[in-house]
Amino acid sequence: MTVTTTPRPTGHPGYSQTLPREPESAAVARKLVRTALTAWGLDELIEDATLVITELVSNAVDHGRLQSIRVVVNRPTENWVRLGVVDRSKALPMMRTDSNGDQVRGRGLVLVDAVTVRWGTDLYRWGKQVWGELKCD
After folding, report:
1. What are the structural domain ranges in the chain?
2. pTM here?
3. HSE of 83 in the Cβ direction (CA atoms, 13 Å)?
4. Taking a C-beta distance cutoff of 8 angstroms, is the pair 49, 83 a contact?
5. How far is the first Cα of the chain from the last one, in angstroms, to the nearest whole number?
6. Per-residue pLDDT tens for 17-55?
7. Thinking of the domain 14-97+105-135, which architecture would CATH place it in?
């Protein structure tokens, strides 16, 4: 008798979706993240991952140039999940370190930095992808 074990999927297929650059797209992005993580058996990451994707979508909505953004969820390796949002702006995101007074907005990247193991920006000639990575146990 042969016993086969199936490892958690990595690499392709990833999950991605083009969405309108509007605040309501954050809910669709969270659903995409939940779907991917559930398919990969990584339910323990859902809470942190949905927070990260919400903040990344919010930044793209505020600072993007065109009418759409692209949400990307993939597993570059067995131990990492990468959540990204692509937009057509070349403006680099800046993490606010000031208290920002009484404003509620403007601290998204501080949250991304606190929740992810690492995050960054990949520049393209036509725009960028801002991403955050979570480690799988």
Report:
1. 14-97+105-135
2. 0.85
3. 33
4. yes
5. 30
6. 999 999 999 999 999 999 999 999 999 999 999 999 999
7. 2-Layer Sandwich (3.30)
